[in-house]
Design a protein that fits this description.
Structural class of chain A: mainly alpha
Distance between the termini of chain A: 21 Å
Strand order of the largest sheet of chain B: 1-3-2
Number of strands of chain B: 3
Order of helices and strands of chain B: HEHHEEH
Helix content of chain B: 40-55%
Oligomer: heterodimer
Order of helices and strands of chain A: HHHHEHHHH
Radius of gyration of chain B: 14 Å
Number of helices of chain A: 8
Number of strands of chain A: 1
Largest sheet of chain A: none
Chain lengths: 222, 99
């Protein structure tokens, strides 16, 4: 970084700066990698951290519900774990994304219509959950199977559709993978769905981190 | 092939860093002058000089919105700027026998 900056200043002073092809190649690679890292709203370290946190959180919930003869839902003891995960994940995601996209505008930013679609998807699944609870549907469905499967299928598919429309196939694949995790959980029962969710999202986020790291390092234009 | 084959407009450390940084954006995105300055580490005057040279060659576009203290300038590589950078890196690879 300092080396790159020093050679940059030399260039301003003398315009050609005595830059030989090897120095130019090094400077180009350093600058490109650094820029790609700085513009990335979901860097690999954040995705891996999120993967570990979701595994721990869902694992804690699964441990609290797996012994229940009739499903009652997560115990009060694990709610602080879930709350901490939601707050830390949301806070870190917004902070990192805000820093990465500062000063960037244009096509990569979500459009108003796309934000509305995602917001409606999130709100709708929980409105339906409330309706099911009000209609007297069993706790195993309302507080077990439903929240561990339906939101991830609906939101994952909505995200995949938006990203497919943008031809952003990596993000589209992530959305589809999240939807698949939700769908697989539906076959695991209300307690098992938490385990499927934790392991499934862990794999999705770690895979996404690896794909992002690879994309940042690959040769050629973005 | 000699160094002379390298595009002289890009083959300057400051401008190489500017072009490489802007090329890391998604196509269709623009970057604010202040963020670019923060990433490149040049003074505003130096950055303006280099941006103007690249803009004169149609390698980038700039757009200024607003007036006075609230004004905001954004820059982006043009398609010819991306093509010129591609050609530059190809030439570098040829000179070095693989980047």
């Amino acid at each position: 970084m300092d080396e790159a900056r020093n050679s940059s200043e030399a260039g301003i002073a003398g315009e050609d700066g005595g830059l030989d092809p090897r120095e130019a190649a090094t400077l180009f690679e350093q600058t490109r990698l650094q820029a790609r890292r700085q513009f990335e709203p979901a860097p690999p370290w954040l995705l891996v951290t999120r993967a570990v946190m979701v595994l721990v959180t869902c694992g804690a919930v699964w441990l609290s519900v797996r012994g229940q003869h009739s499903y009652q839902g997560p115990t009060a003891a694990v709610l602080p774990v879930v709350f901490t995960f939601v707050v830390v994940n949301l806070g870190a995601t917004l902070l990192v994304a805000k820093r990465a996209t500062s000063g960037v505008s244009g096509r990569s930013r979500l459009r108003r219509a796309e934000i509305i679609v995602m917001a409606v998807a999130w709100v709708a699944v929980f409105v339906v959950m409330g309706v099911l609870a009000g209609a007297g549907v069993s706790r195993a469905i309302v507080y077990g199977l439903y929240p561990t499967t339906v939101p991830f299928m609906v939101v994952g598919l909505a995200w995949a559709a938006i990203m497919a429309a943008r031809a952003n196939w990596r993000s589209c694949g992530t959305g589809l993978a999240v939807a698949v995790v939700g769908a697989v959980g539906a076959f695991a029962g209300p307690a098992g769905a938490w385990a499927v969710l934790g392991v499934g999202l862990f794999v999705v986020f770690v895979g996404n981190a690896a794909a992002t790291a690879w994309a940042q390092r690959r040769t050629g234009p973005r | 092939m000699t160094d002379d084959a390298l595009d002289p407009l890009i083959h300057v450390p400051a401008r190489l860093r500017i072009v490489a940084t802007l090329a890391a954006l998604e196509p269709g995105d623009t970057l604010s002058f202040t963020r670019l300055q923060d990433m490149i580490g040049l003074t505003p005057g130096n950055l303006i000089v280099h941006l103007r040279k690249l803009e004169d060659a149609d390698y980038l576009t700039s757009d200024k919105t607003g007036n006075g203290a609230g004004s905001r300038t954004t820059v982006a590589l043009t398609s010819s700027g991306r093509a010129a950078l591609d050609a530059y890196t190809h030439t570098l690879r040829d000179l070095l026998g693989g980047l």
